[in-house]
Write a structure and sequence with these properties.
Elements lengths: L12 E5 L3 H13 L4 E5 L3 H9 L5 E3 L2 H6 L3 E4 L3 H14 L5 E4 L5 H7 L7 E7 L20 E6 L5 H13 L3 E4 L2 H30 L4 H5 L2 H6 L7 H9 L2 H23 L3 H18 L2
Parallel strand pairs: 1-2, 1-4, 2-3, 4-5, 5-6, 7-8
Antiparallel strand pairs: 6-7
Helix pairs in contact: 4-5, 7-11
């Protein structure tokens, strides 16, 4: 097991690959709070590089992966999940001994499995901050995005305590609350509270669109209730496509459970069962209120 060269965040040179909403927000938080020695970014577009420097989100930015990774004590992959899976082998070959390789992907089992193949001199830690917005890209980045938010960490058996400690220190430095969790457990839980809501929002928009073919006044009548419940349908499609396809079985299980509840409510409405419907709706209302007090 290779010990990280930087044993504290203060000593670390950090490279963030991908400066969209998540990566850009992380870079901005690190620059604003100054917990580490140096922050570099890797992007594909020169305009993104220019904007990141102009906003003071990074000390240095490159469109080339190799030099930025080779100089880093910690590399954080902040791209869609399938891109993370493609980048991991490259990063593993470029990273210096003791480098901590972390990701911000919204599913973890596939990423952790891919991290198993990283060279022995690299220290892997999976990560997923439980925050975000339906907007994407560097323009949407906010240095306070992680403030007060749970940030799941999914270490491997080979992950050393020093590497995990460095990851936890990073999370706390940007205002997050680290929570260590097994990757499969994480993926099941987020399939219910993140991936399922996205699909339901898409289904709602699809339903309204079908109705609008007969009467387009549906869009005129749509107000705050429709806007709030359909908000997630505006999420970045590339990110969500990767999320759904790398967590397919658990998303399908969550959809099946949801369908049971929808069918139960449909039967109560169909039967005109006012008492049963009231009890079901009240129970859900009270549970929701307890969650967000």
């Amino acid at each position: 097991m290779t010990t990280p060269q930087a044993t504290t965040l203060r000593e670390a040179r950090i490279t963030i690959v991908g400066l969209g909403l998540m990566g850009g927000s992380l870079a901005g938080a690190l620059k604003a709070r100054h917990p580490c020695q140096h922050v570099s970014g890797v992007v594909r577009q020169r305009e993104t590089a220019r904007l990141a420097l102009a906003r003071g989100l990074v000390d240095q930015v490159s469109t080339e992966l190799a030099p930025a990774v080779a100089e880093a004590d910690m590399v954080i992959l902040a791209t869609p999940v399938r891109t993370i899976l493609e980048l991991l082998p490259q990063v593993g070959q470029l990273a210096r001994p003791g480098c901590v390789v972390m990701d911000l992907g919204s599913t973890k089992a596939a990423v952790v499995q891919a991290m198993l193949a990283l060279p022995a001199h690299v220290q892997p830690v999976g990560g997923h901050p439980m925050c975000g917005k339906e907007t994407s890209g560097l323009d949407a980045a906010e240095p306070d995005l992680y403030q007060g938010r749970v940030f799941v960490l999914t270490p491997l058996q080979r992950t050393g305590s020093e590497a995990l400690g460095l990851a936890e220190e990073l999370v706390e430095a940007v205002g997050g609350r680290p929570l260590v969790m097994e990757a499969a457990r994480h993926d099941w839980l987020v399939s219910v509270i993140s991936h399922l809501p996205y699909l339901l929002a898409c289904g709602l928009v699809g339903t309204a669109e079908q109705v609008s073919q007969r009467d387009d006044a549906v869009w005129t009548l749509a107000a705050s209730g429709f806007r709030d419940t359909s908000r997630l349908a505006a999420s970045d499609v590339t990110m969500m496509l990767d999320t759904l396809l790398t967590n397919r079985d658990m998303v399908l299980d969550a959809l099946a459970i949801c369908d049971v509840h929808l069918q139960r409510l449909a039967n109560l409405v169909r039967n005109g069962d006012a008492e049963g419907l009231s009890m079901a709706l009240t129970a859900m209302r009270e549970r929701r209120e307890r969650m967000f007090r």
